[in-house]
Amino acid sequence: MFVTFWGTRGSVSTPGRITEKYGGNTPCVSVRCDETQLIFDAGTGIRNLGIELLEEIKREKDPRSLHLFLSHTHWDHIQGLPFFLPSYHKNTKLIIYGSHRKERFLASILKEQMDFDYFPVSMTSFAADISIKEMDDKVIQIGPLVIDWQEQVYHPGGSVRYKISVNGTKIVYATDVELNRIFDNLKDNEINESLARDYMDFIADADLLIADAQYTEEEYPEKIGWGHSSIPVLLDTSFRSNVKQLAVFHHDPQHSDKFLDDLWMENRSKYHADDRKMDVFWAREGMTLAI
Amino acid sequence: MAKDSEKTIFTNKKDICILGSEKLGLSSTQEIPRKTFIGSIPTVQHAFLEVMDEEKKKINLGEDDVIIGRVPACDVQIMANNVSRRHARISYCNEEYRIEDLGSMNGIYVNGVKVEKCVLRKHDVLEIGGIKILFVEEKVRQDDDGK
Lengths: 291, 147
Known about the structure:
- The complex is a heterodimer.
- Chain A is an alpha/beta fold.
- Chain A has helices spanning about 45-60, 75-80, 105-115, 180-185, 190-205, 230-240, 255-265; strands at about 1-5, 30-35, 35-40, 65-70, 90-100, 130-135, 140, 145-150, 160-165, 170-175, 210, 245-250, 280, 285-290.
- Chain A has a single domain (about 1-290), classed as Ribonuclease Z/Hydroxyacylglutathione hydrolase-like (Metallo-beta-lactamase, Chain A, 4-Layer Sandwich), CATH 3.60.15.10.
- A seven-stranded mixed β-sheet of chain A has the order 6-5-4-3-2-1-14, with helices on one face. Chain A has a seven-stranded mixed β-sheet with strand order 7-8-9-10-11-12-13.
- The N and C termini of chain A lie close together (about 5 Å).
- A six-stranded antiparallel β-sheet of chain B has the order 4-3-13-12-9-10, with no helix packed on it. Chain B has a five-stranded mixed β-sheet with strand order 6-5-7-8-11, with no helix packed on it. In chain B, strands 1-2 form a two-stranded antiparallel ribbon.
- The interface of A and B includes residues 20, 279, 285 and 290 of A.
C-alpha cells in the first residue's frame, strides 16, 4: 500500500513560508493498493490529489472508482471537496462514506457546504457518479482491502477512525479525538476503561498509525474539550499498543516548521524497548510511504 | 512643508539632530522619489545536492531528471555497496523538486523517514545506501547575462 499525505494541518489551512515544509493544507490522506484508491478526509489537501488523479482519469477508458472516507464533517475535513476536480468529471465514480450517527443526513451536510451562500457551484454540478453512504455496523471490503471503522467520542460532534488491512498489513487513520480525556481519567471509570480498550485494540500492531496530537503537553491544559490529543498521550498509547510507525498528524495552525522539527527531534528516539522500537515522525505534505 | 525636486524632509521639532549639513528629526521620514523605486529583481531558483562526506561534492539541479545510483550511466554515481544500480530519481515538477525510489534494495530516507516519494524542502537530508546528501534550495539574483 502506498500512503500519501496531501494535507496534514489541523483546524484551518495555514499557507506561508513558516509552514511550507510540513504543509498548510488541511487533512487528506490517500491509500493506494494496485487499482484501489482510498481517500481519507477532504480537507484542502484533496485539491492537489484531485489534480493528479484527473490526469490519470482523463487517460483511462473505464470509470475510475474513488472511495472517500470522512472522519467527520468539520470544515477542515470537507472544505476541499468543492475543489476536487474528479468530482466534475463523468469518468469518475465517487463513493463518500461517513458516520450514520449525525442528526442530519451526511448528504445534506455536504450539499449545504455548496449552497450558493457559501460557494458559487452547487453539488448538482458534479458530473461524476456520486453516492453518499452512511456506514452501518459492517466492515467494508473494497478490492483486496478490508476497512474496519469505529465511532470516536471526545471530539465535538464525534468522529470516525478507520483501519485498512490487506495480507496482514494494517494502517490506521484515527484523527480528531481527545485521548487525554480517556487515558488521563481511567481510575474507577468503566466507560473510559472500555473506550481505552477499544482504542488500543483497534490500533494494536498497526504498521502505520496516522493520528492527531495537535498539542504539546504544555499547551493541552488550555485546550481541554477541544477534541484533540496531546503528544505524550498519543505516543505513550501507541507504543503500548505495539504500533510500528506513528505519523503525528493534524498539526496545530500555530506550529511552524521549526517548532514541529524541534518536537520531532525531542520525541523521535524516546520510544524504544530492548526488543522493539516505534518509528515516530511528524507527517508532512507531499510525502509517500510504502507500507 | 519644504519640498525640492528630489526629496522632502519631514522634521519632528522635538527631536532634531544634525546629519551632515542637514537638520533631521529622529523620526524623520524621507520620501523616495518614484523614479528611484526598485522594480522586481530577476531571480532564478537554484538548487543543488551536497554529498555530506569529506569531499562535500556538489551536484547542481536543473529541470532535467537526475538519476542517482551505482552504475556509471547514472547522473550521480555513488560507489557504495548499499546503493542500487539505479537507486533514486530527483525530478522537477510544478516548481519543486521531489525524490522517488526506483525500486532500490535499501530504500531512500528523507530526514530519517523511509519514503517512496517525497517533495523536497530546503535542508532536507536524504539518505541513499547509508550516504547522506543535503538538499539545498535558494532563490538567487539572476545575472545580466541571464545566468
